[in-house]
């Protein structure tokens, strides 16, 4: 106990110093921080949404839609491949499968060979192969072939969709110019979006809720609103804002897409000659050429600009559009035009997203929470410290010193790790203040007991520390286990609580077993006490 | 003069109260179950799904008027309550079939100025869909079960399996009583409650382990002491520490409860209750339970007062 090698003293002092120095930025103002020399840490704790206000959204990717789209495109591929191999057939999508009926059942084996070539290996590389097949197929006894999507392939596809969606969302939210958003995948098929310091969830949802699939398709103006739609065409509704009384609510357009949003290079707010807000855009090289080509051939026809299945504009082609750029007119406000511009330049989401959980905290509540948390922590800390000194006298002061180092270490580690402090996290710290002294209490009680039993002062200290050690380990490991499980299962604020609790357990063990022990042994070596006032 | 809440040499015969404690705990558990099945829990939207809006008003809000104004919207069950402060109101709405959450919140925002004078600040809105709330429930239950399981394994490894059983029985006891307390008080049961329960699990265990640790030590030291006496001795040895730590933790929690704001009221209430229950259970439940099972002492002890029968190994068995 009394024997403390120098390296240990240095190490313990360094750790304690690290705590104080790395925690310090949290208690300084920004100006004070800026005036500090560069070698000192300046990282402050990130405040959670509940402490600084902000929006938390959990979005779910509509995977059934992804599955349907995949089925449709796969059916097209298979039909083309079979046609190329001169195998006549009829196919249909039934539930989750594509059912192929061959006109000549004797061609079945040949058809299966062709199908074999349409299998895409997802996730594999061109060089090494590998990956998972996207479809599997089965010949039935009646000669029909059932093609279905593989589970692995769907999972892979779902993951790709999520990754792409996160990309697109990040571009969109960054485009709004707010503070660092946190966008991440959560579980299977979910995306978590947290935007701190932003209290308009409606605006945020406008930005992220739209799929923003844009396409340019030619209008068949010969078709009236009651006519039957011929094959190769589809009837699409006008967007609500574009409906004009007396004019049809829908138009018949060619299914062939001249261009899609993927061919856009940039888009943003612009103004037309009457100074009304419009969305101006520029195509990429391919898009520009193709647009010029199509408009040259279709002068005096109308084309429709379609966003998420609704026609937002259907202008007449007065002359070929050659410059590779254009504008979308409509009933836009400055805000809605810049919003659409942002959506178009960030690209379309590969699937529809729906909000399944939403939490918005206003900035007032956030600052109220911080204030309350601070007061509770300070009062709690002072009360505990007074009680400890009353109970253990000089030893209590050492314990209190250790407690302060402990709290510095918690703040320091949280800041260094870049952890987020939430209200439950504050609760975790306050709770640690109460529980952190436990290790010291265990030691002091043991020392008290040994001394009372008649051991000499020094030997009582020695035995006290020794015997309390294994109890401290057992008692803390169990709390640590609870914290780990909380971390694993908790979401958001609860995770924050688990982190502070776990760090608190670790640092309180360090401060009790090493730091306070070092101070007390230094005192014991110098004073050689015969009586312990404990 | 130092403050000592627990006198230096106590010898309270805790173990002799065990029958009372068992009956008492059993009654409490039955009461907790009864409350749970009759009154149920006041689930927050985390677990029930739905929409919650917290608003701040300039003047003291008229809860009745807000409630009647909102119920005219025909949105099903509307709960309106004060939230810690008469100028702070919490509104709970059901998840509306066929309406997006925004449409619901928009409707609420439209009519609220009829019921409230002056400016209304929207402090917080939360919505949780039903699939998410179901997952949160199953995750929460899973977390508590896993925590208890992990603890059982840890104690089994560090002590004997009998200790593990005792600790887990005490833990389950604490969790049930905490849920009962939530049912009785009608405090909102939400995600932070799960966090509180897990922390109680950790804390109660902490207490139990300290007592068990001393029992293990005393088992080695006093080979011939009868078990009840040995258990009493161990509890008394650690009593001063148990009281001290419970008090420091309670002090910190009381500060959190009274000053920490409405947001963590439920959390700190649960924790305060948990400290009492956890401390009680480690003394009156976890320790006496060890009497039910035979604890292995390090060496065979055949003395009659040891209270342990040692059967000599049979040949051929």
UniProtKB/TrEMBL annotation, chain A:
Per UniProt, what is the membrane topology?
Answer: Multi-pass membrane protein
Q: Which UniProt keyword terms apply here? A: Cell membrane, Membrane, Protein transport, Translocation, Transmembrane, Transmembrane helix, Transport
Q: Name one GO cellular component term.
A: plasma membrane
In this chain the Protein export membrane protein SecD/SecF C-terminal domain maps to 354-523
Q: Could you confirm whether the keyword Membrane appears in this record?
A: yes
| One GO MF term attached to the UniProt entry | protein-transporting ATPase activity
A Gene Ontology biological process term: intracellular protein transmembrane transport
Tagged with keyword Transmembrane: yes
Q: Where is the Protein translocase subunit SecDF P1 domain?
A: 162-220
Domain named SecDF P1 head subdomain: residues: 250-351
Entry's transmembrane regions: 375-394, 401-421, 427-447, 468-490, 496-520
Q: Where in the cell is it found?
A: Cell membrane
| Cross-referenced InterPro entries | SecD, SecD/SecF_arch_bac, SecD/SecF_CS, SecD_1st, SecD_SecF_C, SecD_SecF_C_bact, SecDF_P1_head
Function of the molecule: Part of the Sec protein translocase complex. Interacts with the SecYEG preprotein conducting channel. SecDF uses the proton motive force (PMF) to complete protein translocation after the ATP-dependent function of SecA.
Q: Can you state the subunit structure given in the record? A: Forms a complex with SecF. Part of the essential Sec protein translocation apparatus which comprises SecA, SecYEG and auxiliary proteins SecDF-YajC and YidC.
Question: What family is reported?
Answer: Belongs to the SecD/SecF family. SecD subfamily.
Q: Which NCBIfam families match?
A: 2A0604s01, secD
- Protein name as annotated: Protein translocase subunit SecD
From TrEMBL, chain B:
Cellular location(s): Cell membrane
Its GO CC terms are: plasma membrane
Task: List where the protein spans the membrane.
Answer: 20-38, 136-157, 164-185, 191-212, 233-259, 271-293
Q: How does it sit in the membrane?
A: Multi-pass membrane protein
Q: What does this protein do?
A: Part of the Sec protein translocase complex. Interacts with the SecYEG preprotein conducting channel. SecDF uses the proton motive force (PMF) to complete protein translocation after the ATP-dependent function of SecA.
User: Which PANTHER family does the annotation name?
Assistant: PROTEIN TRANSLOCASE SUBUNIT SECF (PTHR30081:SF8), PROTEIN-EXPORT MEMBRANE PROTEIN SEC (PTHR30081)
Family statement: In the N-terminal section; belongs to the SecD/SecF family. SecD subfamily.
What is the name of this protein? Protein-export membrane protein SecF
Q: What taxonomic lineage is listed for the species of origin? A: Bacteria, Pseudomonadati, Pseudomonadota, Alphaproteobacteria, Emcibacterales
Q: Which gene encodes it?
A: secF
